[in-house]
Design brief:
about 550 residues, alpha/beta, Glutamyl-tRNA Synthetase, domain 3, Ribosomal Protein L25, Chain P, 3 domains, seven-stranded mixed sheet, 13 helices, about 25% helix, elongated, binds adenosine-5'-triphosphate, binds magnesium ion
Protein backbone atom coordinates (compact mmCIF):
# COMPACT_ATOMS: atom_id res chain seq x y z
CA UNK A 1 0.00 0.00 0.00
CA UNK A 2 1.42 3.38 -0.90
CA UNK A 3 1.91 6.10 1.68
CA UNK A 4 -0.53 8.41 -0.03
CA UNK A 5 -3.34 5.93 0.20
CA UNK A 6 -2.62 5.38 3.87
CA UNK A 7 -2.74 9.08 4.54
CA UNK A 8 -5.93 9.45 2.53
CA UNK A 9 -7.47 6.63 4.50
CA UNK A 10 -9.51 8.24 7.19
CA UNK A 11 -11.59 6.97 10.00
CA UNK A 12 -15.10 5.74 9.37
CA UNK A 13 -17.13 8.86 8.58
CA UNK A 14 -19.49 9.79 11.40
CA UNK A 15 -22.80 7.94 11.32
CA UNK A 16 -25.63 7.00 13.66
CA UNK A 17 -23.64 4.09 15.08
CA UNK A 18 -20.57 6.18 15.91
CA UNK A 19 -23.00 8.59 17.63
CA UNK A 20 -24.32 5.74 19.76
CA UNK A 21 -20.81 4.54 20.59
CA UNK A 22 -19.67 8.04 21.55
CA UNK A 23 -22.62 8.35 23.90
CA UNK A 24 -22.05 4.92 25.41
CA UNK A 25 -18.39 5.68 26.06
CA UNK A 26 -19.18 9.10 27.48
CA UNK A 27 -21.90 7.87 29.80
CA UNK A 28 -19.68 5.00 30.97
CA UNK A 29 -22.16 2.41 29.71
CA UNK A 30 -19.20 0.71 28.07
CA UNK A 31 -15.48 1.08 28.73
CA UNK A 32 -14.21 -0.44 25.52
CA UNK A 33 -16.16 -1.38 22.42
CA UNK A 34 -16.30 -4.91 21.09
CA UNK A 35 -17.82 -5.78 17.70
CA UNK A 36 -17.95 -8.95 15.63
CA UNK A 37 -18.36 -10.02 12.04
CA UNK A 38 -20.55 -13.17 11.99
CA UNK A 39 -20.67 -14.79 8.54
CA UNK A 40 -22.52 -17.99 7.91
CA UNK A 41 -20.00 -20.26 6.11
CA UNK A 42 -22.40 -21.18 3.30
CA UNK A 43 -20.76 -19.25 0.47
CA UNK A 44 -18.08 -16.73 -0.42
CA UNK A 45 -18.17 -13.16 0.87
CA UNK A 46 -19.55 -10.43 -1.38
CA UNK A 47 -19.45 -6.65 -1.55
CA UNK A 48 -22.35 -6.43 0.93
CA UNK A 49 -20.26 -8.27 3.48
CA UNK A 50 -17.43 -5.82 2.78
CA UNK A 51 -19.69 -3.05 4.09
CA UNK A 52 -20.24 -4.97 7.31
CA UNK A 53 -16.54 -5.91 7.61
CA UNK A 54 -15.34 -2.34 7.06
CA UNK A 55 -17.81 -1.09 9.66
CA UNK A 56 -17.23 -3.69 12.36
CA UNK A 57 -13.44 -3.92 12.03
CA UNK A 58 -13.22 -0.20 11.30
CA UNK A 59 -15.06 0.72 14.50
CA UNK A 60 -12.74 -1.53 16.51
CA UNK A 61 -9.74 0.17 14.89
CA UNK A 62 -11.02 3.73 15.32
CA UNK A 63 -12.09 3.25 18.95
CA UNK A 64 -9.19 0.97 19.97
CA UNK A 65 -11.59 -1.82 20.72
CA UNK A 66 -11.82 -5.39 19.45
CA UNK A 67 -13.59 -7.17 16.60
CA UNK A 68 -14.10 -10.92 16.52
CA UNK A 69 -14.54 -13.13 13.49
CA UNK A 70 -17.24 -15.62 14.36
CA UNK A 71 -18.58 -18.28 12.05
CA UNK A 72 -22.28 -18.61 12.52
CA UNK A 73 -22.17 -22.35 11.99
CA UNK A 74 -25.47 -23.50 13.46
CA UNK A 75 -26.69 -25.09 10.25
CA UNK A 76 -24.62 -28.25 9.76
CA UNK A 77 -25.96 -29.26 6.35
CA UNK A 78 -24.94 -26.18 4.40
CA UNK A 79 -21.45 -25.49 5.65
CA UNK A 80 -18.18 -26.27 4.07
CA UNK A 81 -14.42 -25.92 4.81
CA UNK A 82 -13.87 -24.26 1.43
CA UNK A 83 -16.16 -21.43 2.51
CA UNK A 84 -14.50 -21.07 5.91
CA UNK A 85 -11.07 -20.74 4.30
CA UNK A 86 -12.25 -18.30 1.65
CA UNK A 87 -13.91 -16.08 4.27
CA UNK A 88 -10.79 -15.91 6.44
CA UNK A 89 -8.66 -15.11 3.41
CA UNK A 90 -11.02 -12.40 2.17
CA UNK A 91 -11.23 -10.63 5.55
CA UNK A 92 -7.43 -10.58 5.76
CA UNK A 93 -7.05 -9.48 2.17
CA UNK A 94 -9.38 -6.55 2.87
CA UNK A 95 -6.78 -5.53 5.43
CA UNK A 96 -8.33 -6.54 8.74
CA UNK A 97 -7.24 -8.70 11.67
CA UNK A 98 -9.69 -10.28 14.06
CA UNK A 99 -8.87 -10.25 17.71
CA UNK A 100 -7.92 -13.56 19.29
CA UNK A 101 -8.77 -16.87 17.68
CA UNK A 102 -11.41 -17.42 15.01
CA UNK A 103 -14.63 -18.19 16.87
CA UNK A 104 -17.61 -20.33 16.02
CA UNK A 105 -21.14 -20.41 17.32
CA UNK A 106 -20.52 -24.14 17.65
CA UNK A 107 -17.85 -23.43 20.29
CA UNK A 108 -20.81 -22.54 22.50
CA UNK A 109 -23.11 -25.51 21.86
CA UNK A 110 -22.67 -26.83 25.43
CA UNK A 111 -23.36 -23.41 26.94
CA UNK A 112 -26.32 -22.82 24.64
CA UNK A 113 -27.80 -26.15 25.64
CA UNK A 114 -27.56 -25.18 29.30
CA UNK A 115 -29.19 -21.80 28.66
CA UNK A 116 -32.04 -23.60 26.92
CA UNK A 117 -32.46 -25.70 30.08
CA UNK A 118 -32.56 -22.47 32.10
CA UNK A 119 -35.51 -21.28 30.01
CA UNK A 120 -37.25 -24.63 30.44
CA UNK A 121 -36.72 -24.51 34.20
CA UNK A 122 -38.42 -21.12 34.36
CA UNK A 123 -41.37 -22.36 32.35
CA UNK A 124 -40.21 -20.22 29.41
CA UNK A 125 -39.60 -22.95 26.85
CA UNK A 126 -41.42 -26.10 25.83
CA UNK A 127 -40.99 -29.09 23.58
CA UNK A 128 -43.51 -28.93 20.75
CA UNK A 129 -44.54 -31.95 18.73
CA UNK A 130 -46.49 -30.13 16.04
CA UNK A 131 -45.05 -30.73 12.58
CA UNK A 132 -43.12 -27.87 10.92
CA UNK A 133 -46.15 -27.28 8.64
CA UNK A 134 -48.53 -27.12 11.59
CA UNK A 135 -46.22 -24.73 13.43
CA UNK A 136 -46.28 -22.45 10.41
CA UNK A 137 -50.04 -22.67 10.20
CA UNK A 138 -50.53 -21.99 13.93
CA UNK A 139 -48.21 -18.99 13.74
CA UNK A 140 -50.87 -16.76 12.16
CA UNK A 141 -50.21 -13.80 9.90
CA UNK A 142 -49.54 -10.08 10.20
CA UNK A 143 -53.33 -9.58 10.45
CA UNK A 144 -54.27 -12.71 12.41
CA UNK A 145 -52.87 -13.62 15.80
CA UNK A 146 -51.34 -17.08 16.18
CA UNK A 147 -52.85 -20.04 18.02
CA UNK A 148 -51.29 -21.84 20.94
CA UNK A 149 -49.89 -25.30 20.37
CA UNK A 150 -51.63 -28.09 22.32
CA UNK A 151 -48.18 -28.95 23.73
CA UNK A 152 -47.60 -25.44 25.08
CA UNK A 153 -48.59 -26.08 28.66
CA UNK A 154 -46.54 -29.12 29.48
CA UNK A 155 -44.93 -29.24 32.90
CA UNK A 156 -41.36 -28.15 33.45
CA UNK A 157 -40.39 -31.75 34.32
CA UNK A 158 -41.94 -33.13 31.15
CA UNK A 159 -40.25 -30.47 29.01
CA UNK A 160 -36.87 -31.18 30.59
CA UNK A 161 -37.28 -34.88 29.99
CA UNK A 162 -38.38 -34.40 26.36
CA UNK A 163 -35.60 -31.93 25.60
CA UNK A 164 -33.04 -34.43 26.88
CA UNK A 165 -34.75 -37.07 24.77
CA UNK A 166 -34.35 -34.73 21.77
CA UNK A 167 -30.65 -34.38 22.51
CA UNK A 168 -30.25 -38.13 22.90
CA UNK A 169 -31.71 -38.96 19.51
CA UNK A 170 -35.19 -39.93 20.72
CA UNK A 171 -37.00 -37.98 18.01
CA UNK A 172 -36.85 -38.03 14.25
CA UNK A 173 -36.28 -34.78 12.37
CA UNK A 174 -39.43 -32.65 12.36
CA UNK A 175 -41.07 -34.65 15.13
CA UNK A 176 -40.09 -32.32 17.98
CA UNK A 177 -38.54 -28.93 18.58
CA UNK A 178 -37.93 -26.58 21.49
CA UNK A 179 -39.85 -23.32 21.42
CA UNK A 180 -39.57 -20.22 23.58
CA UNK A 181 -42.86 -19.54 25.37
CA UNK A 182 -43.48 -15.87 24.69
CA UNK A 183 -46.73 -14.62 23.15
CA UNK A 184 -48.73 -16.16 20.29
CA UNK A 185 -50.63 -12.88 19.87
CA UNK A 186 -47.59 -10.63 19.60
CA UNK A 187 -47.71 -8.15 16.71
CA UNK A 188 -44.13 -9.29 16.03
CA UNK A 189 -44.33 -12.70 14.42
CA UNK A 190 -40.81 -13.54 15.58
CA UNK A 191 -42.12 -13.38 19.16
CA UNK A 192 -44.87 -15.98 18.58
CA UNK A 193 -43.12 -18.80 20.41
CA UNK A 194 -40.10 -19.00 18.09
CA UNK A 195 -38.39 -22.33 17.61
CA UNK A 196 -35.01 -22.23 19.37
CA UNK A 197 -33.78 -25.83 18.88
CA UNK A 198 -34.52 -28.38 16.20
CA UNK A 199 -33.54 -31.96 15.46
CA UNK A 200 -31.00 -32.49 12.64
CA UNK A 201 -29.14 -35.72 12.00
CA UNK A 202 -26.19 -34.20 10.22
CA UNK A 203 -22.46 -34.25 10.75
CA UNK A 204 -21.19 -30.84 11.75
CA UNK A 205 -17.84 -29.60 10.35
CA UNK A 206 -16.47 -29.03 13.85
CA UNK A 207 -18.60 -30.93 16.36
CA UNK A 208 -19.00 -34.00 14.17
CA UNK A 209 -21.81 -36.25 15.35
CA UNK A 210 -21.84 -35.01 18.92
CA UNK A 211 -25.17 -33.26 18.48
CA UNK A 212 -28.40 -34.15 16.76
CA UNK A 213 -30.11 -30.97 17.92
CA UNK A 214 -29.00 -27.55 16.73
CA UNK A 215 -29.85 -24.09 18.11
CA UNK A 216 -31.56 -21.56 15.83
CA UNK A 217 -29.97 -18.28 14.75
CA UNK A 218 -32.03 -15.97 16.98
CA UNK A 219 -31.26 -17.96 20.11
CA UNK A 220 -27.60 -18.49 19.24
CA UNK A 221 -26.62 -15.06 18.06
CA UNK A 222 -27.50 -12.99 21.11
CA UNK A 223 -25.99 -15.53 23.52
CA UNK A 224 -22.80 -15.82 21.44
CA UNK A 225 -22.53 -12.02 21.50
CA UNK A 226 -22.94 -12.02 25.29
CA UNK A 227 -20.41 -14.83 25.81
CA UNK A 228 -17.84 -12.89 23.79
CA UNK A 229 -18.57 -9.61 25.56
CA UNK A 230 -19.69 -7.90 22.36
CA UNK A 231 -20.97 -4.40 23.13
CA UNK A 232 -22.38 -3.31 19.75
CA UNK A 233 -23.87 -6.05 17.61
CA UNK A 234 -24.53 -4.63 14.14
CA UNK A 235 -26.79 -6.34 11.65
CA UNK A 236 -29.01 -5.40 8.71
CA UNK A 237 -32.53 -3.97 8.83
CA UNK A 238 -34.35 -7.28 8.22
CA UNK A 239 -33.48 -8.14 11.82
CA UNK A 240 -35.15 -5.07 13.29
CA UNK A 241 -38.12 -7.05 14.67
CA UNK A 242 -35.83 -9.80 15.89
CA UNK A 243 -34.19 -7.31 18.24
CA UNK A 244 -37.14 -8.00 20.58
CA UNK A 245 -36.25 -11.66 20.66
CA UNK A 246 -32.54 -10.85 21.04
CA UNK A 247 -33.35 -8.85 24.16
CA UNK A 248 -35.95 -11.30 25.45
CA UNK A 249 -33.51 -14.21 25.45
CA UNK A 250 -30.80 -12.23 27.23
CA UNK A 251 -33.35 -10.88 29.76
CA UNK A 252 -34.32 -14.41 30.75
CA UNK A 253 -31.04 -16.27 31.12
CA UNK A 254 -28.38 -15.92 33.80
CA UNK A 255 -25.63 -14.40 31.64
CA UNK A 256 -24.41 -11.01 32.92
CA UNK A 257 -23.00 -9.35 29.80
CA UNK A 258 -25.46 -7.19 27.87
CA UNK A 259 -24.77 -6.63 24.18
CA UNK A 260 -27.12 -4.45 22.12
CA UNK A 261 -28.22 -4.95 18.56
CA UNK A 262 -28.23 -2.08 16.04
CA UNK A 263 -29.54 -2.31 12.51
CA UNK A 264 -28.30 -0.57 9.37
CA UNK A 265 -29.48 -0.80 5.77
CA UNK A 266 -27.95 -3.50 3.59
CA UNK A 267 -25.82 -2.58 0.63
CA UNK A 268 -27.66 -3.11 -2.64
CA UNK A 269 -25.51 -2.57 -5.68
CA UNK A 270 -26.75 -2.20 -9.25
CA UNK A 271 -25.96 -4.99 -11.72
CA UNK A 272 -24.91 -7.24 -8.90
CA UNK A 273 -26.20 -10.06 -6.73
CA UNK A 274 -25.61 -9.93 -3.00
CA UNK A 275 -27.23 -13.12 -1.89
CA UNK A 276 -25.09 -16.18 -1.32
CA UNK A 277 -27.96 -18.45 -2.30
CA UNK A 278 -28.28 -16.80 -5.70
CA UNK A 279 -24.53 -16.59 -6.19
CA UNK A 280 -24.42 -20.29 -5.48
CA UNK A 281 -26.96 -20.89 -8.27
CA UNK A 282 -24.83 -18.98 -10.79
CA UNK A 283 -21.82 -21.08 -9.83
CA UNK A 284 -23.71 -24.39 -9.79
CA UNK A 285 -25.32 -23.79 -13.16
CA UNK A 286 -21.93 -22.97 -14.67
CA UNK A 287 -23.05 -19.47 -15.73
CA UNK A 288 -19.86 -18.06 -14.23
CA UNK A 289 -16.31 -19.32 -13.84
CA UNK A 290 -16.62 -20.14 -10.11
CA UNK A 291 -17.14 -17.89 -7.10
CA UNK A 292 -14.15 -15.80 -8.19
CA UNK A 293 -15.45 -15.05 -11.68
CA UNK A 294 -14.23 -11.48 -12.32
CA UNK A 295 -17.77 -10.39 -13.24
CA UNK A 296 -19.10 -11.25 -9.79
CA UNK A 297 -19.06 -8.77 -6.95
CA UNK A 298 -17.80 -11.40 -4.56
CA UNK A 299 -14.65 -10.28 -2.77
CA UNK A 300 -12.70 -12.99 -4.58
CA UNK A 301 -14.23 -11.99 -7.93
CA UNK A 302 -13.39 -8.34 -7.36
CA UNK A 303 -9.83 -9.27 -6.39
CA UNK A 304 -9.43 -11.32 -9.58
CA UNK A 305 -10.95 -8.46 -11.56
CA UNK A 306 -8.23 -6.14 -10.25
CA UNK A 307 -9.93 -4.32 -7.41
CA UNK A 308 -7.58 -3.41 -4.58
CA UNK A 309 -8.45 -3.68 -0.87
CA UNK A 310 -7.93 0.09 -0.64
CA UNK A 311 -10.52 0.73 -3.35
CA UNK A 312 -13.13 -1.48 -1.67
CA UNK A 313 -12.53 0.15 1.72
CA UNK A 314 -12.82 3.56 0.09
CA UNK A 315 -16.11 2.51 -1.50
CA UNK A 316 -17.45 1.47 1.90
CA UNK A 317 -16.44 4.84 3.33
CA UNK A 318 -18.17 6.69 0.50
CA UNK A 319 -21.48 4.84 0.78
CA UNK A 320 -21.69 5.45 4.51
CA UNK A 321 -23.88 3.81 7.13
CA UNK A 322 -27.56 4.71 7.46
CA UNK A 323 -30.97 3.17 8.03
CA UNK A 324 -32.22 4.22 4.56
CA UNK A 325 -32.73 1.45 2.05
CA UNK A 326 -31.16 2.39 -1.26
CA UNK A 327 -29.34 1.04 -4.27
CA UNK A 328 -25.85 2.21 -5.11
CA UNK A 329 -24.77 2.68 -8.72
CA UNK A 330 -22.06 0.42 -10.04
CA UNK A 331 -20.18 3.50 -11.21
CA UNK A 332 -19.62 4.42 -7.55
CA UNK A 333 -17.62 1.23 -7.04
CA UNK A 334 -15.83 1.62 -10.35
CA UNK A 335 -14.72 5.15 -9.65
CA UNK A 336 -13.09 4.03 -6.39
CA UNK A 337 -10.84 1.55 -8.14
CA UNK A 338 -10.17 3.97 -10.98
CA UNK A 339 -9.01 6.63 -8.51
CA UNK A 340 -6.74 4.18 -6.72
CA UNK A 341 -5.22 2.71 -9.87
CA UNK A 342 -4.83 6.10 -11.49
CA UNK A 343 -2.66 7.11 -8.56
CA UNK A 344 -0.80 3.84 -8.14
CA UNK A 345 -0.83 1.50 -11.15
CA UNK A 346 2.16 1.21 -13.46
CA UNK A 347 1.58 2.36 -17.02
CA UNK A 348 2.25 0.10 -20.00
CA UNK A 349 1.37 -0.11 -23.68
CA UNK A 350 -0.85 -2.87 -24.99
CA UNK A 351 -2.33 -3.20 -28.45
CA UNK A 352 -5.56 -5.14 -28.15
CA UNK A 353 -6.39 -5.37 -31.87
CA UNK A 354 -3.00 -5.33 -33.61
CA UNK A 355 -2.49 -3.73 -37.04
CA UNK A 356 1.00 -3.74 -38.64
CA UNK A 357 2.70 -0.39 -39.06
CA UNK A 358 5.92 -0.18 -41.09
CA UNK A 359 8.21 2.82 -40.64
CA UNK A 360 9.67 2.96 -44.12
CA UNK A 361 12.47 5.36 -43.28
CA UNK A 362 13.56 3.44 -40.17
CA UNK A 363 17.33 3.10 -39.99
CA UNK A 364 18.01 6.53 -41.47
CA UNK A 365 19.73 9.11 -39.33
CA UNK A 366 17.51 10.37 -36.52
CA UNK A 367 15.06 7.45 -36.97
CA UNK A 368 17.17 4.64 -35.60
CA UNK A 369 16.27 4.19 -31.94
CA UNK A 370 16.02 0.59 -30.78
CA UNK A 371 14.33 1.41 -27.49
CA UNK A 372 13.17 4.20 -25.20
CA UNK A 373 13.50 4.40 -21.44
CA UNK A 374 10.06 5.19 -20.10
CA UNK A 375 8.88 5.75 -16.51
CA UNK A 376 6.20 3.39 -15.19
CA UNK A 377 4.30 6.36 -13.77
CA UNK A 378 4.95 10.01 -14.51
CA UNK A 379 4.13 11.15 -10.99
CA UNK A 380 5.81 8.23 -9.24
CA UNK A 381 9.51 8.04 -10.07
CA UNK A 382 9.85 5.44 -7.30
CA UNK A 383 8.06 2.94 -9.54
CA UNK A 384 11.10 3.01 -11.84
CA UNK A 385 11.39 2.73 -15.62
CA UNK A 386 11.28 0.10 -18.32
CA UNK A 387 12.73 -0.19 -21.82
CA UNK A 388 10.14 0.11 -24.56
CA UNK A 389 11.44 -1.60 -27.67
CA UNK A 390 11.29 0.05 -31.13
CA UNK A 391 11.98 -1.19 -34.65
CA UNK A 392 10.91 -0.83 -38.27
CA UNK A 393 7.75 -2.90 -37.72
CA UNK A 394 5.29 -1.98 -35.05
CA UNK A 395 1.73 -2.78 -34.07
CA UNK A 396 -0.88 -0.12 -33.52
CA UNK A 397 -4.54 -0.66 -32.69
CA UNK A 398 -6.92 -1.17 -35.62
CA UNK A 399 -9.11 1.59 -34.17
CA UNK A 400 -6.22 4.06 -34.36
CA UNK A 401 -5.96 4.14 -38.16
CA UNK A 402 -8.34 5.33 -40.88
CA UNK A 403 -7.67 6.09 -44.47
CA UNK A 404 -9.84 9.15 -44.22
CA UNK A 405 -11.56 10.85 -41.34
CA UNK A 406 -12.83 14.24 -40.26
CA UNK A 407 -11.08 16.67 -37.94
CA UNK A 408 -12.52 15.06 -34.81
CA UNK A 409 -10.41 11.98 -35.48
CA UNK A 410 -7.16 12.69 -33.66
CA UNK A 411 -5.44 9.45 -34.54
CA UNK A 412 -3.54 8.25 -37.60
CA UNK A 413 -4.94 8.91 -41.09
CA UNK A 414 -3.34 8.99 -44.50
CA UNK A 415 -1.32 12.14 -45.11
CA UNK A 416 -1.48 13.31 -41.50
CA UNK A 417 0.80 13.16 -38.49
CA UNK A 418 0.46 11.72 -35.00
CA UNK A 419 2.95 11.09 -32.26
CA UNK A 420 3.73 7.55 -31.21
CA UNK A 421 3.58 7.61 -27.41
CA UNK A 422 7.07 8.22 -25.91
CA UNK A 423 8.51 8.13 -29.43
CA UNK A 424 8.61 9.68 -32.91
CA UNK A 425 6.14 11.78 -34.82
CA UNK A 426 5.00 9.77 -37.84
CA UNK A 427 2.99 10.48 -40.99
CA UNK A 428 0.91 7.74 -42.66
CA UNK A 429 1.79 7.46 -46.33
CA UNK A 430 -0.09 4.42 -47.65
CA UNK A 431 -1.82 1.21 -46.60
CA UNK A 432 -2.21 -2.39 -47.83
CA UNK A 433 -5.50 -4.28 -47.86
CA UNK A 434 -6.54 -7.90 -48.06
CA UNK A 435 -8.94 -9.29 -50.66
CA UNK A 436 -11.92 -8.13 -48.52
CA UNK A 437 -10.71 -4.58 -48.43
CA UNK A 438 -9.62 -4.77 -44.83
CA UNK A 439 -6.52 -2.74 -43.99
CA UNK A 440 -3.74 -5.12 -42.96
CA UNK A 441 -0.69 -2.88 -42.98
CA UNK A 442 0.02 0.84 -42.78
CA UNK A 443 3.16 2.53 -44.07
CA UNK A 444 4.52 5.63 -42.43
CA UNK A 445 7.53 7.95 -42.33
CA UNK A 446 8.97 9.10 -39.03
CA UNK A 447 10.15 12.67 -38.51
CA UNK A 448 13.90 12.45 -37.73
CA UNK A 449 14.95 13.39 -34.21
CA UNK A 450 11.36 13.86 -33.07
CA UNK A 451 11.39 11.24 -30.32
CA UNK A 452 10.19 12.89 -27.14
CA UNK A 453 10.62 16.45 -28.51
CA UNK A 454 8.88 19.01 -30.68
CA UNK A 455 10.20 19.67 -34.16
CA UNK A 456 9.49 22.91 -35.97
CA UNK A 457 6.93 22.62 -38.72
CA UNK A 458 5.36 19.45 -37.27
CA UNK A 459 2.23 19.62 -35.17
CA UNK A 460 0.83 16.12 -34.56
CA UNK A 461 -2.86 16.21 -33.67
CA UNK A 462 -2.88 13.22 -31.36
CA UNK A 463 -0.90 10.53 -29.62
CA UNK A 464 -1.36 6.81 -30.22
CA UNK A 465 0.28 3.85 -28.55
CA UNK A 466 2.19 1.00 -30.17
CA UNK A 467 4.32 -2.03 -29.48
CA UNK A 468 7.35 -3.37 -31.35
CA UNK A 469 6.14 -6.16 -33.63
CA UNK A 470 9.57 -7.80 -33.41
CA UNK A 471 9.72 -7.71 -29.63
CA UNK A 472 6.38 -7.90 -27.88
CA UNK A 473 4.44 -10.32 -25.72
CA UNK A 474 1.37 -11.99 -27.24
CA UNK A 475 -1.30 -13.15 -24.80
CA UNK A 476 -4.97 -13.44 -23.93
CA UNK A 477 -6.88 -10.46 -22.56
CA UNK A 478 -10.38 -10.69 -21.07
CA UNK A 479 -12.67 -7.71 -21.43
CA UNK A 480 -15.51 -7.79 -18.94
CA UNK A 481 -18.82 -6.02 -19.11
CA UNK A 482 -21.67 -6.29 -16.64
CA UNK A 483 -22.79 -9.81 -15.86
CA UNK A 484 -26.48 -8.85 -15.89
CA UNK A 485 -28.55 -7.14 -18.54
CA UNK A 486 -30.71 -5.34 -15.97
CA UNK A 487 -29.71 -3.08 -13.07
CA UNK A 488 -31.63 -5.06 -10.49
CA UNK A 489 -31.29 -8.77 -11.33
CA UNK A 490 -32.07 -9.82 -7.76
CA UNK A 491 -35.66 -8.63 -8.11
CA UNK A 492 -36.34 -10.62 -11.29
CA UNK A 493 -38.28 -13.80 -10.83
CA UNK A 494 -35.94 -15.72 -13.11
CA UNK A 495 -32.74 -13.81 -12.41
CA UNK A 496 -30.67 -16.45 -14.22
CA UNK A 497 -32.24 -15.34 -17.51
CA UNK A 498 -30.89 -11.81 -16.97
CA UNK A 499 -27.29 -13.01 -17.29
CA UNK A 500 -25.70 -11.36 -20.34
CA UNK A 501 -24.01 -14.10 -22.40
CA UNK A 502 -21.83 -11.43 -24.03
CA UNK A 503 -20.47 -10.06 -20.77
CA UNK A 504 -17.00 -11.47 -21.38
CA UNK A 505 -15.00 -10.89 -24.57
CA UNK A 506 -11.75 -12.77 -24.96
CA UNK A 507 -9.01 -11.26 -27.10
CA UNK A 508 -6.89 -14.28 -27.98
CA UNK A 509 -3.77 -12.64 -29.25
CA UNK A 510 -3.25 -9.10 -28.00
CA UNK A 511 0.22 -7.56 -28.47
CA UNK A 512 1.67 -6.18 -25.26
CA UNK A 513 4.94 -4.42 -24.61
CA UNK A 514 7.62 -6.98 -23.81
CA UNK A 515 8.05 -5.97 -20.16
CA UNK A 516 4.54 -7.28 -19.38
CA UNK A 517 5.74 -10.85 -19.82
CA UNK A 518 7.24 -10.53 -16.34
CA UNK A 519 4.09 -9.21 -14.67
CA UNK A 520 3.18 -11.00 -11.44
CA UNK A 521 -0.13 -12.53 -10.50
CA UNK A 522 -2.68 -9.78 -9.70
CA UNK A 523 -0.24 -7.01 -10.65
CA UNK A 524 -2.09 -3.88 -11.82
CA UNK A 525 -1.41 -1.78 -14.90
CA UNK A 526 -2.91 1.04 -16.79
CA UNK A 527 -2.80 0.04 -20.45
CA UNK A 528 -2.45 3.54 -21.82
CA UNK A 529 -5.50 4.85 -23.64
CA UNK A 530 -7.40 1.61 -22.84
CA UNK A 531 -8.04 1.08 -19.17
CA UNK A 532 -6.87 -0.61 -16.02
CA UNK A 533 -5.95 -4.27 -16.23
CA UNK A 534 -4.53 -6.86 -13.89
CA UNK A 535 -2.88 -10.23 -14.27
CA UNK A 536 -5.42 -13.02 -13.96
CA UNK A 537 -4.60 -15.06 -10.87
CA UNK A 538 -6.43 -18.25 -11.79
CA UNK A 539 -4.59 -18.85 -15.08
CA UNK A 540 -1.28 -17.43 -13.86
CA UNK A 541 1.90 -19.12 -15.00
CA UNK A 542 5.20 -17.27 -14.51
CA UNK A 543 6.28 -15.71 -17.79
CA UNK A 544 2.85 -16.25 -19.40
CA UNK A 545 0.47 -13.86 -17.68
CA UNK A 546 -3.01 -13.25 -19.07
CA UNK A 547 -4.84 -10.02 -18.31
CA UNK A 548 -8.28 -9.01 -17.09
CA UNK A 549 -9.93 -5.65 -17.65
CA UNK A 550 -10.66 -4.03 -14.29
CA UNK A 551 -12.31 -0.83 -15.56
CA UNK A 552 -12.02 1.32 -18.68
CA UNK A 553 -10.25 4.65 -18.24
CA UNK A 554 -13.48 6.58 -18.16
CA UNK A 555 -17.01 5.74 -17.23
CA UNK A 556 -18.83 4.08 -20.12
CA UNK A 557 -21.60 6.08 -21.77
CA UNK A 558 -23.78 3.08 -22.51
CA UNK A 559 -24.87 0.59 -19.89
CA UNK A 560 -23.02 -2.44 -21.12
CA UNK A 561 -19.81 -1.35 -22.80
P1 LIG B 1 -26.64 -13.72 2.25
O1 LIG B 1 -28.03 -13.42 1.84
O2 LIG B 1 -25.63 -13.30 1.22
O3 LIG B 1 -26.45 -15.12 2.73
P2 LIG B 1 -26.48 -13.05 4.99
O4 LIG B 1 -26.82 -11.81 5.70
O5 LIG B 1 -27.30 -14.26 5.23
O6 LIG B 1 -26.38 -12.72 3.46
P3 LIG B 1 -24.23 -13.72 6.57
O7 LIG B 1 -23.08 -14.59 6.26
O8 LIG B 1 -25.21 -14.19 7.59
O9 LIG B 1 -24.98 -13.45 5.22
O10 LIG B 1 -23.77 -12.25 6.90
C1 LIG B 1 -22.70 -11.91 7.73
C2 LIG B 1 -22.82 -10.45 8.08
O11 LIG B 1 -22.78 -9.65 6.91
C3 LIG B 1 -24.13 -10.16 8.77
O12 LIG B 1 -23.88 -9.35 9.89
C4 LIG B 1 -24.95 -9.43 7.73
O13 LIG B 1 -25.79 -8.50 8.31
C5 LIG B 1 -23.87 -8.75 6.89
N1 LIG B 1 -24.33 -8.57 5.51
C6 LIG B 1 -24.70 -9.52 4.63
N2 LIG B 1 -25.12 -8.98 3.47
C7 LIG B 1 -25.01 -7.63 3.61
C8 LIG B 1 -25.28 -6.51 2.76
N3 LIG B 1 -25.75 -6.66 1.53
N4 LIG B 1 -25.05 -5.27 3.25
C9 LIG B 1 -24.55 -5.11 4.49
N5 LIG B 1 -24.28 -6.11 5.33
C10 LIG B 1 -24.49 -7.37 4.91
MG1 LIG C 1 -27.49 -15.75 6.45
Amino acid sequence: MSEEVQVKEEKIPRNFITDIIDEDLQSGKVQEIATRFPPEPNGYLHIGHAKSICLNFGLARDYHGTCNLRFDDTNPVKEDMEYIQSIERDVQWLGFKWSGPVRHSSDYFDLLFNYALELIDQGLAYVDELSPDEIREYRGTLKEPGRESPYRNRSIEENRELFLKMRDGGFEEGKACLRAKIDMASPFICMRDPVIYRVRYATHALTGDKWCIYPMYDFTHCISDAIEGITHSICTLEFQDNRRLYDWVLDHISIKARPHQYEMSRLNLEYSITSKRKLNLLVDKGLVDGWDDPRLTTISGLRRRGYTPESIREFCRRIGVTKQENTVEMSALESCVRDDLNANAKRAMAVLHPLRLVIDNYGEEGVDATSFTVPYHNDKPELGTREVSFSKELYIDEADFREEANKQYKRLKLGFEVRLRHSYIIKATSCEKDENGKVICVHAEAVPNSAGRDVEGHKPKGVIHYVDANNCYRTKVHLYGRLFKVPNPGSCEDFLSTVDPDSCTVIENAALEASLKNAKSLEHFQFEREGYFCVDSKSYVEGQPQFNLTVPLREAKKANV
